[in-house]
Amino acid sequence: MKKEPAVITAYRNENGGLIKDVNKLVASYPRVPITVDCVIFGFEENELKVLLIRSDLEFYKDKWSLLGDFADDNEELDDAAYRVLAERTGMNDVYLEQVRAFSKPNRHPGGRVITIAYCSLLNIQHHKLQSTDNELHWHSVNSIKDMAFDHKEILDVCYSWLQKRIQEHPLGFNLLPDKFSLRELQNLYEAILGVNLDRRNFRKKFFSMDFLEDIGEYEQDVPHRPGKLYRFNFEKYEKNKRKWIGIDFG
Amino acid sequence: MKKEPAVITAYRNENGGLIKDVNKLVASYPRVPITVDCVIFGFEENELKVLLIRSDLEFYKDKWSLLGDFADDNEELDDAAYRVLAERTGMNDVYLEQVRAFSKPNRHPGGRVITIAYCSLLNIQHHKLQSTDNELHWHSVNSIKDMAFDHKEILDVCYSWLQKRIQEHPLGFNLLPDKFSLRELQNLYEAILGVNLDRRNFRKKFFSMDFLEDIGEYEQDVPHRPGKLYRFNFEKYEKNKRKWIGIDFG
DNA sequence: GCAAAAGTGTTGTCCTTACACCCATGC
DNA sequence: GCATGGGTGTAAGGACAACACTTTTGC
Question: Is pTM, for the whole model, over 0.90?
Fold first, then answer.
């Protein structure tokens, strides 16, 4: 039961049990190809969308795939994920967060590849996809059935992650224009959480959190009374956010 | 801005733009040594403890290190983490969850190594460390100053993860004996969260969640009125847990 | 009988929910 | 003037925080 890991044992007892040649030690480790895969969410027409590309592999012909790439030598994983985003969308100032690693040995048909999934939120309006990117498309998250690799599983995990995360952190604003109406914000939450929320209580909630900034502008070209536009005041949020004790399993 | 990843470009245009030889594709990816590192928490003498080993590396002589090992060929990362636990503690039925990847290029002195951190909770009483494991020790989490590699950073991240997680999921029971008093449970929460909680409200809270099972036994050998012992009813919890909408940033 | 911790209830406050009416604009 | 959604307030119920006294045991 208490076997020592093989490599460590092999390198022991050279210097009072300590390993001297760390390079040799690391060189003895098995090596694995590492990729990052980005689940890039956007919001359009009151639907949560995800940016997918048609798989490059004949093996997955006509299946959709997340945007990913291998991690370069000495490239930190976050950097690799930002690089994928920049290469594919041209955007540099995008919200991005690591979700977790996926490591099933047979998840890639070409051999073992471990991938680190990242979740990313961007404003579709800020990035009009160019027509040369004709294999790059936004898909309604709820319409996606099956995908290349284990990417459907990764998408599902990231979607759940987002549903939880958006209730505890002000991520949603990354999916909206700088100026947005409360109706847009509510549509966003309803679409992501898959619920209907009471409009009056929703407003009260966000106003009481007190980081929506009334910028004195109004919606335009709407066939009804235009709503006020707001901006998310990030500084105010950072200054006022509190730590929180509240045990509650669910 | 929209450069295509080099490898994908190289393998294109062989079959209508599709890549045929997936093995060759994967073989062309850079490979990285992957390790798992386990942050193994325990609870003893009303303190949160973490299980550490003295570093095997001369480079980190006399520094403490998390328990880790490289991932074997075709070994899933969760399995590698369970293996590390079994090898080091002899325990197989331990709570374990992936936290995240750490990938700074210089985090290991022997060259680039990416590690996936796991958080693990076990009951110290169930596993009396054997004296042959004389470099394996429990350390009070709050007393740890500096560690080998980036392990202090990993520990800090996992500790924060635990503080949050324990408020939303019934993990804490993994740190306690099967039968425990409410006082022990409260001490656990107070130690992990670093706060004082009102005893009466704490009891009400847990009783109202209704998965503590009164087993009709009492504490023994205490120099005061003995408290009742309870057991966590996992089935009842699973059956009653609800989904939850509650937007609240903090 | 004394020390030490277990066990128990009530009240006020705050947060959440449910719900209905007037208002501003485009057509 | 009518259709459409914007904007607002209130009341009830539930959760949480604060708080003190009696009970049981070991010594």
Answer: yes
